[in-house]
Design brief:
Layout: H1 24-36, E1 41-44, H2 47-55, E2 65-69, E3 73-83, H3 88-107, E4 110-122, H4 129-134
Parallel strand pairs: 3-4
Antiparallel strand pairs: 1-3, 2-3
Helix pairs in contact: 1-3
């Protein structure tokens, strides 16, 4: 039996079992889901490549998200569409807070920065044509 594992050792000393690598796409999905949970975010902007993939039937929870992952940290870029009539800096701050919490909780990585790129404004997902006429 291996005597190097004693109950008084720290977590770092027990890490000789191997490593855990979380795929960039997983982190992007976590960030995308957290972003869409923020009130005032009506969509994500994926650009040309993501738009073509979506037209081919491939919907992704990481649409509009770019991540850069280091050994223990991550930087996130989000491309969002904000609900018309809301204060954009307030929505962006809520997105940053929610994404930071979600990514750090789920992955254990430190989020260094979350850059929010507002690509447009739109109406909320619940609006119908009739609701728009009343405004």
């Amino acid at each position: 039996m291996d005597n190097s594992r004693k109950s008084g050792q720290t977590g770092d000393e027990l890490m000789d079992l191997g490593s855990v690598r979380i795929a960039d796409e997983v982190i992007a999905s976590i960030a995308g889901i957290a972003t869409m949970d923020v009130p005032g975010v009506v969509g994500m902007s994926s650009g040309l490549i993501g738009g073509m993939a979506e037209m081919m039937g491939k919907k992704s929870t990481s649409k509009g998200v770019k991540v850069q992952v280091g050994a223990r940290e991550v930087a996130v870029d989000l491309y969002i569409v904000v609900e018309y009539g809301l204060r954009i800096p307030d929505v962006a701050l809520q997105v940053q807070e929610k994404v930071k919490e979600a990514v750090e909780t789920a992955t254990g990585l430190t989020v260094l920065e979350i850059n929010v790129h507002v690509q447009g404004v739109g109406f909320s997902r619940g609006d119908t044509d009739e609701d728009l006429r009343v405004r």
